[in-house]
Amino acid sequence: MAKQMSWTDAENEVTYTESYWRPIQCNFDVLTQTGMVVFGGWKNQAARQRGKRLVGAKIYYITPAIYEQYFKESILKDAGKSFLTQSYLMATETLDTPSGEPAVMKSFFDGALDV
To answer: For the purposes of burial, counting CB atoms within 10 Å of the CB of 89, is it exposed (0-12), middle (13-18) or buried (19 or more)?
Structure first.
C-alpha cells in the first residue's frame, strides 16, 4: 500500500502530480512509548520502483498518547493490526497541515489515493 497525491516541494518550486509516499522508517521505544515514523515521497511510483531518490519526507514523532492510540500491543496483537497499517492510519488521522483556512488543519495526506 502507498499514498499517491499531488504535492509541491517545500520551496514551492516543483509540483509532483503523482507523488508516491510510503513509510521508509519506523522506530519505536516500547518502554517510553515514543518513536518516529518517516514517510518517503518519490516523484511517482515508477521512480520508486527504479530506485530513484526521494523528493520529500514527512516525519511523525510518536508521543506516548499517539503510541497508546495506534501502536500499543493490544491494538497490534489482539486486533491483528501491524505497525505498517497503523502508521498509515495515524498519518491519515493526524491533522498537522494548514488547510488554507484560518485555524483549520488537515492531514498531510488529505485527498491522497491509496494505491
So the answer is: middle
Other C-beta atoms closer than 10 Å to the C-beta of 75 total 16
What does the alpha-carbon distance between residue 18 and residue 35 come to, in Å, rounded to a whole number? Answer: 29
Separation between Cα atoms, residue 103 and residue 16, nearest integer Å: 26
What is the model's pLDDT at position 107?
98
pLDDT of residue 12: 86
User: Cα separation of 21 and 41, whole Å?
Assistant: 4
> Could you tell me the pTM of the whole model?
0.92
d(CA 31, CA 69): 15
Condensed to tens digits (0 to 9), the pLDDT of residues 95-106 reads 999 998 999 999
